[in-house]
Amino acid sequence: MRPKPYEILEIEILRLIGVVSGRLIDEALFIEEGSEEDMKRAILFKPELVERKLEVIDVEKPVETGVIDILARDSEGRIVVIELKKDTAGTEAVIQLKRYVEAIRRDFGEARGILVAPGISKKAYAALTGLGLEYVRLSVDKCLKVLEKYRKEGLTAFM
Hints:
alpha/beta; single chain; five-stranded mixed β-sheet
């Protein structure tokens, strides 16, 4: 059992031939292919993955309700709060983004909120648009390709 992300391995024994006792040691290395961190690095290299003429101004910005993944400025000079999810976004992500946008609005006035994820549930999308927030579809695979391109070019500032 692994607590985060939560998973359980179940094994069904169909026929028992014998029983052996011993101490098992798992020395395997778990490598997760693609993460929110990869998405963030790709957007730092190429902000237009989210929106044309977007300028990143801060990363991992702490506010009283948590930590904003990316804080940016759009082409009209408005502050943009970007929340990243590597999997399909649900209503929890919408609530999180709403809190971050509210915190930034208290400090800076007008602000937009964009949820960036490879997918979004229907319920979450309805809540998001109802709050005047935005959604941008972006896959982890696309971000990994961007990172690979920059890696090949020898650019590793955000790697």
